[in-house]
Structures are given as C-alpha cells and as structure tokens.
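call fold(seq) -> tokens
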Amino acid sequence: MRQLSALDVQFLNAESATTTGHVGGLSILDPSTAPNGMLTVEDVRALIAQRLHLAGPLHWRLLEVPLNLDHPYWIEDADFDLEFHVREIALPAPGNDQQLAEQVARIAARPLDRRRPLWEAYVIQGLEHGRVGLYTKVHHAAIDGVSGAELLGVLMDLTPEPRHVDPRGSRQVEGPPPRLSLLATAARKLALQPLKLALSVPKMLPHLDKLPGLAGIPGASALAKAGNRLARLSPGSDETERPRLVPPHTPFNGPITQHRRFAYGSLPLDEVKRIKNAFGHTVNDVVMALCAAALHRWLAEHKAIPASPLVTLVPLSVRTPEQAGTAGNQISVMLAPLPVHVADPKARLDEVVSAMALAKQRYQPLPASWLVDFSAMLPAALGALSARALMRFAGATSPLVNLVVSNVPGVQMPLYTAGAKLLGHYPVSAITDASGGINITVMSYDGKLDFGIVVCRELVPDVWNLIDYLRDALDELGKLADEEGAG
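ret:
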C-alpha cells in the first residue's frame, strides 16, 4: 500500500464535468517488423501481461479514506481485468491523421473509472499505409512526464525481438486495511497539521508570489517580501524587483467545455539543433520560440494579438536519480513570458531567450520540493475544496496562466512494441480552466521532436493550423540561422 502525495492528489481534485486528470500519448507503429507483419490487441495484451509486475501503476487502484480526511492510497487491484484496460477499435477508410486525432480526442475527453486502475490503452487499426495506433492514457495522479516515459519504456524494446523478462511469481493481493485503521491514521495527521503548517509557512512565504494562482492575489508580493526579510536571505540572494506576470486575455482562455481536439506532428531534431548552435541557445529555447511563432500567427489570424506576452506554465522534472523508476509526481513548475506580441522573428527569438533566462533565475532559489510543500500545507479535505474553487474562479475571471508548454526528453534510438517499430510518440496531455484551453507538449524521439497539441474544441476549433505554423516557424528560424552563419 502506497499513499499518494499532496501533489498527486491535486490531479484528482482538479477533475470536474469539463476537466479530466489523465495524460498519455499516441504511438504510431509500423507492424511490418512484427511477427507475421501484424500487431493485434492480443499481442499488446500478451506483452503487458508479461511485464505487468514491472509497471506498478497498471495494477494499482485507489483506496479512498473515509470522509476524505486523508489522502487516498494505491492498493493492488484484486479484480484486475486486462481485457477491460486494453481495447481495440478501427478507423473507417482512409484512416488519415485527422481521423485518428479526432478519435483520440474523443477518448481523451472521457474520464477514467476510479473503481479500477487508472489507465486505458487502445489499439487502433485501419490507419493509412498499414500503420497501427496505440493510444494510452494514465492518470496524472500516478505519473508525471518522466515517470510516464519510464512506464512507456517498460513496454518497449530496442530490437524487434522482445527482450527476456523474468516472470514474477503469483501475485499476492492483500485486502484493504480496516476503515478504523485509516481513520486513526488520518486523525493523527490532522492533530499534527497545525504544527506542520507552522513549520511550512516561514519556508514557503518568501516564494508565495511565484505560485500560479496565488501570484495574482493582491498582497501576495508584499507577503513574499516580508517572508524574505524574515528568512534573512543571504547577501548573495537575488531580491531584485521584477514585474508581476499578468496573463492577457486571449480567445483560448476562459471556461473550457468537456470537448477536446487533438493534433500532432514532428519536426527534425537536427534542424532544431542547427538553429540553436547558430545562435548559441538551447534546444528548449528554440522549442519555445517555435511555439511563440505559431501562437503569434494563430492570434494574428484571429485578430487577437495581446499587447503583452502570454504567461506560460512550464513543468520541470525534479526527479532525482534515486527516484528513477518510481511512480507519482516529482515535478515543479516555472512561469515564463512567451512574447507572441513581437512580430519580428529574430527579435521574438531574442525575447524568448531573455525571458527563459530570467524565469530560471527567478525560480532558482526555490527548493526542489516547493510545489509538493505548497500542496501539503492544507489538510486533505480542504485541499480538495480549495482546488475545485480555484478552478471555478479561474474559469469565471482571469486565467492563472495562458497555456502549458512542456518538453519531455526521450530516447534517441528506434524502439519496438511487440515487434512493431515505433515511428513516433505524440503526447496527449490535459487542459483546465486555470491553465488555458491549449496544452503543447513535445517529446524527443529518434531524431525528431514529436508535438502533441490538446485544446478545447470550442475555444480552438482549428488546432491543426498550429501544427502547420510550427513547421513554418522552423523554416523561418532556419533561414535566420543561414543568415547568421553567412554573416
């Protein structure tokens, strides 16, 4: 039995009639390298069954604490049914990318069944050119970007011939603990909560103005300054006054619906590296510049370019080597301006680089666990209420951020699933009222950057345009890199 952290639970608390808390990805596979040149749902089920013991979240289910007085636990599912979790569907002809993305969007919009382990996988047949899709979704309460990539790696191999995996003995499934035992543990934690809060406040107060949501509350900056003085920061600490990031209004911010749209595409990693080398930047700088260019063009076409930068939430992994292979969330976040209001491509790239450097400097003093620490400051029951209230408030008033942009490192070599070669893996992430109606997540794989863009259908009906704009933005930066090299 393993208890969810306060941060893990926030992804459960965020769910509503219009918001789901799962993340995942769409794998495009070439079955010609698999035995008999086919990949069926039976093949995928057999692979998962063989390696199930290597992937804990796939056979854990939630155990709620009575009255929600404490965070829930993961326990072994005594009634685990692999056939329920791994399903097969087919697209009608011609089975193109747009049809596939629309089917994935429909599945992504449906919440997971909390009575079972929180994941599903869909083998999707009928794709053009004989390809097969595999869409997986797992609740964010169980994985973050890095642990999700590790979970994906459990089901993949470096060659078409699957590697040998030592089988696990018969699974010993213990029953859930008595309710009174759970209540007693929760009562002890509640009794210690005032002390825990008193110890946490002085440590967290100096960083209050860096937390999405709280940063915009009047007085947060003053409290943070007071916390800095109380903490007696070292003389070398950076206490420079910086403007507060205020998300401008855009067409893709506001209350989202339960409907989703999804689009995906790839860019060559070598070209991105060539551009970053030409200007002396990083791959992530170029990725952010590409996103800024694509959004600038989209906003221009909708006559909605703001006068100030967008505020982007950028997730960061703080998973240590010792935490490799563990489930749950080991993440932090950073707020960064995205200069979509800048029309000139070179000036926009320079502004992106400067903004990312300042954002990193701003968040550098924070402890790696600050997001977990903030999440843990309220008792479990109040945490659920406050999270839902914050989401409703953000949807009804001003956004906490405009959008999420995430960059997850991946493997730079071919991978195989049940013998079928992985052609691309496109992230399918989540959107909320608080974080905006667009989520752009990119994962590197085998010489490519695979982009997955999830949007609210009513706010961004033309999501495929953003994929086209990303490609155009890469060509634009490539020409600038040529000019830089010639100069």
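The CA atoms of residues 55 and 355 lie 38 Å apart.
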